[in-house]
C-alpha cells in the first residue's frame, strides 16, 4: 500500500528525533496513574499557579471579581457562569500552563460543536498560523518535498514552506486540470495540498462538488489535505454556504472517508469575533495514524502550551450564548451586525471596482478581501519595466503614494504578475462608514 | 575575520529563502510613509479590531469597564491609569494583531528597564520558549551544526536542537576545562552556547567571573551566547545575586563587548508573576548584524504577532507599581511573600534531601528546582539493569509509584545517568503548607 506523508515512517525525521523529557516515560506513566485516580504531584516543570501560587493582584485585578458579592451588578449571570465554567477547566486559572494540546474541557466543547469528532484529535494553538506551521514542519522532510498551494495564496504558506526547506507547487482553482499537470512533473515529491476555503485573498467558497474533486484527487495522489477554513463565518452570499472539507470527506464514505489524511484549521481572529490579538486557534486531525499524533503532541509540548486566554476565546466562539440566555439577544445583535456590515462592504468593494475602467472584480463571496483584475495599459507596463518592477508591484506602489492605501500582497507567481491582481481589505471602508 | 553563526551569510538558508509578502516591499514602503506622517490604510492582513470593528461584548465583558463611572469603585486608580496607558499602545485594543515584534510601547518600557538597550532589538514572544526556538532555528543550518548545552539541561534545548536538525554538544559548568575539549572535537561545527542562569534544573547562579570566562570563551571560539535568564527573580541566596550576561558583556569593554553575539531570554512565567498560561516573553539581541535582525523580524512576522495580553503582562512585569502608587504596598507584600516562600522552600528541600541517607544536594541558589545526587546501592542498580532501565529512571519510576511524586526529567546524557540526578520542584511543598 502506498505511503502517505503523515504515515509515521514518512514524516520529518527531525520531528521524531526531537526528545522531550518533560513528556518522556516518567510523565506518561504519571499521567496514567492520575487517570487511575492516584493523586500525582507534578514537579517536572515550573508552573506555579498550577501548584497554588496566588497571582499578583496588580496585573490581574480581576481575580476577586467573581467572588465579589456585587459581581452580579457588573456582569450578566450567564457570563459569570461561563467564566466559572472555564476556570473550572484549569487548576491554576489563566496563569497556569495547560496541557500542550490545550484545555481538555475546551477541546471537548470543540468536538461537540464540530460533531462526530474526537477531542484527542483537536489541538488548540496560538492562532491558526502556528498550527499550519507545525503541520508543514511535520510533513516537509527537506528540499524537494512539494506542497500544492493555490495561487494566489496567503503568504503564510510560501513563507513557511521555504522556512522548512520544502517546495511550493502552485495550482489554480479555476484551472482544475492543471493539478494533474503540476503533479506529473513532481509526483514523487508532492506530499500535501493546501486549500483556503473561503479563499484568501480570492474570497471564493468551494462547492461540495469541487471539494469532492479535491478529496478524490488527494486520495488518488496520496496527498495530505490541509484545509485552511479560518474564514468559514465570513460568507457574503447564500448560494454556496461554507461546507467543511471534513464534512464532505466523511459524507463521501469509504474508502476515501477512511483514507484521506486531513488537517482542518480554525481561529478566533476572523469571523465576527476578529480577536486577532488573542492568538487563539485549533487544528483537527482526521485519518492521522496514532503514532504520528503522538509525535505532533510531543512537538507541541516543546513550547509548553498555547496561551490560555486565547483558548477560552475559542471556547466562547464554539459555544456562544444560546436562545434564552440573558446575553443571547445582545450577542446575536452584535454578531449579525458585524457580518451584515462585512457583507455590505463586500458589495461596495466589488461594485466599486467594477465601476472603474479596466478593472474587473468577481463578487467577494467570502473572507475579507476583494481581488480585482486590473488591465494595465501598455504605457503603464512599459513604465514599470523601465522602473525595473513587475507591473502589479509598480501599480500598487503608485496607489500607495497617491492614496495611502497599502494593498495586500501582490502575487509573486509569474503566472499572475501580468494580471496585476492585488487584495483590498474590506476593512478600509470602516474609515468612511 | 572569522564568521559568527548569526552573521548574515552564516544563518540557516531556509530562513533567508522564506518570503513573506505581508512584510514585502509594499509594506515596508507603507511603513516609511507612515513614519513620514502620511495616513496609511493597511489592507494587507485581516485585522478587524485595528480597523474599528467593535469586539463582541459577551467574551470580553470588560470593554465597558474603563468607561463606567463606577470603575473607580471596583479598581484602584493606578491600575486604571496603567490599563488606559497599555490600551493607548494598541490601536485595536487586545483583539488586534500587534507589530510582529510586539507593541512598540512595551518594547520601549523593556529597553528603559534593562537600561542602555534599543527597543528595536527587543522582540516580544509567546513565552521564552518560542524565542529560544526561533533563535535555534536561525542558527542551525542542518545536521552537524553543534550547540553547546549545559548538562543537566532544560529539555527545551535538546528537543528544539534535534527538531531543527542540529547536534547537542554537552558541557559541564563545574568542569570548565571540558569545554575546550568538547570544542576541539567539533570546532568547525559548534555555533552557539546556551547558558541557563539561574540554572534549570541545577539552580546555580553564575558569578561575574564565570560569566566573563564564558564570554571570553564565546569570543575566542566565535560562538553566539544564548542566555536563558528566565529565573532571574528566583534567587534564594544573597552572596551571588543574579547578573545578566548582557551587563557583564557590556562592562567587559571592547573588543569583546562589541563582538560577542548575545541573545538574552526572559518570560512572565517565572519570578513572582508565574503567569505561565499567558505566554509572555521577550528576547534581546546584542551585537547582531542589522541584516540578520531583519531576517529574524521576517520570520517572526510569519505567525503575525505574539498574543497581546501576554505582552501587557510583560509590560507590567518590567514596570510594576512604584513607591507612592496606591497599589505599591499590596504589590510589594504579595511579590515579597512569594519570593520569601520560595526561598523558604528552597531551604526545606535541600535540608530535607541532605537529611536523607545516600542523598547529597547542593543548596538551591535559584530557579525552582532542587537537584539532589542520589547514590543508588549496587542492588538497586542491578534491579534497574535487569528491568532494562537506566538506574535513575528506574528510581524515579519507583518513587512515582510509591509516592505519586512525578519528578523532573532524569538527565539522559550518559555522563549523568550514573548519578541518578533528578529535579524536584519546590512547588510540591505547596501541598503541605
TrEMBL record, chains A, B:
EC number: 2.6.1.2
Aminotransferase class I/classII large domain: residues covered: 78-375
Enzyme class: transferase
One Pfam family linked to the record: Aminotran_1_2
Biological process annotations from GO: L-alanine catabolic process; photorespiration
Pathway where this protein functions: Photosynthesis; C4 acid pathway; Amino-acid degradation; L-alanine degradation via transaminase pathway; pyruvate from L-alanine: step 1/1
Assembly description: Homodimer.
Protein name per UniProt: alanine transaminase
Amino acid at each position: 500500500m502506498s505511503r502517505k506523508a503523515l504515515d509515521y515512517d514518512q514524516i520529518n525525521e527531525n520531528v521524531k528525533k526531537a526528545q522531550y523529557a518533560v513528556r518522556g516515560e516518567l510523565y506518561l506513566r504519571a499521567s496514567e496513574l492520575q487517570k487511575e485516580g492516584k493523586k500525582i504531584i507534578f514537579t517536572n516543570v515550573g508552573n506555579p499557579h498550577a501548584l497554588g501560587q496566588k497571582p499578583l493582584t496588580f496585573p490581574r485585578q480581576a481575580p476577586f471579581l467573581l467572588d465579589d458579592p456585587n459581581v452580579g451588578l457588573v456582569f450578566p449571570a450567564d457570563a459569570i457562569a461561563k467564566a466559572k465554567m472555564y476556570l473550572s477547566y484549569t487548576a491554576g486559572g489563566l496563569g497556569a500552563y495547560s496541557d500542550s494540546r490545550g484545555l481538555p474541557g475546551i477541546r471537548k466543547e470543540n468536538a461537540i460543536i464540530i460533531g462526530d469528532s474526537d477531542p484527542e484529535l483537536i489541538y488548540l494553538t496560538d492562532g491558526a498560523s502556528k498550527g499550519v506551521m507545525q503541520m508543514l514542519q511535520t510533513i516537509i522532510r527537506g528540499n524537494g518535498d512539494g506542497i500544492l498551494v493555490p495561487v494566489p495564496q496567503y503568504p503564510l504558506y510560501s513563507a513557511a514552506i521555504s522556512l522548512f526547506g520544502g517546495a511550493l507547487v502552485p495550482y489554480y482553482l479555476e484551472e482544475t486540470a492543471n493539478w494533474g499537470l503540476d503533479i506529473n512533473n513532481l509526483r514523487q515529491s508532492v506530499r500535501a495540498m493546501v486549500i483556503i476555503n473561503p479563499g484568501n485573498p480570492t474570497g471564493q467558497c468551494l462547492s461540495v462538488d469541487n471539494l469532492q474533486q479535491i478529496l478524490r484527487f488527494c486520495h488518488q495522489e496520496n496527498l495530505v489535505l490541509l484545509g485552511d477554513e479560518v474564514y468559514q463565518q465570513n460568507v457574503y452570499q447564500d448560494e454556496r454556504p461554507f461546507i467543511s472539507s471534513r464534512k464532505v470527506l466523511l459524507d463521501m464514505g469509504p474508502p476515501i472517508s477512511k483514507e484521506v489524511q486531513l488537517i482542518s484549521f480554525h481561529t478566533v481572529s476572523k469571523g465576527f469575533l476578529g480577536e486577532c490579538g488573542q492568538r487563539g486557534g485549533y487544528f483537527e486531525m482526521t485519518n492521522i495514524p496514532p503514532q504520528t499524533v503522538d509525535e505532533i503532541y510531543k512537538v507541541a509540548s516543546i513550547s509548553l502550551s498555547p496561551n490560555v486566554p486565547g483558548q477560552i476565546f475559542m471556547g466562547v466562539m464554539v459555544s456562544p450564548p444560546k436562545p434564552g440566555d440573558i446575553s443571547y439577544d445582545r450577542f446575536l445583535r452584535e454578531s449579525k451586525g458585524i457580518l451584515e456590515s462585512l457583507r455590505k462592504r463586500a458589495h461596495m468593494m466589488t461594485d466599486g471596482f467594477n465601476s472603474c475602467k479596466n478593472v474587473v472584480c468577481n463578487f467577494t463571496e467570502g473572507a475579507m478581501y476583494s481581488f480585482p483584475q486590473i488591465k494595465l495599459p501598455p504605457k503603464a507596463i512599459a513604465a514599470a519595466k523601465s522602473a525595473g518592477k513587475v507591473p502589479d508591484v509598480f501599480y500598487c506602489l503608485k496607489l500607495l503614494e497617491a492614496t495611502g492605501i497599502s494593498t495586500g500582497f501582490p502575487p509573486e507567481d509569474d503566472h499572475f504578475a501580468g494580471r496585476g491582481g492585488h487584495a483590498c481589505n474590506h476593512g478600509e471602508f470602516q474609515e468612511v462608514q
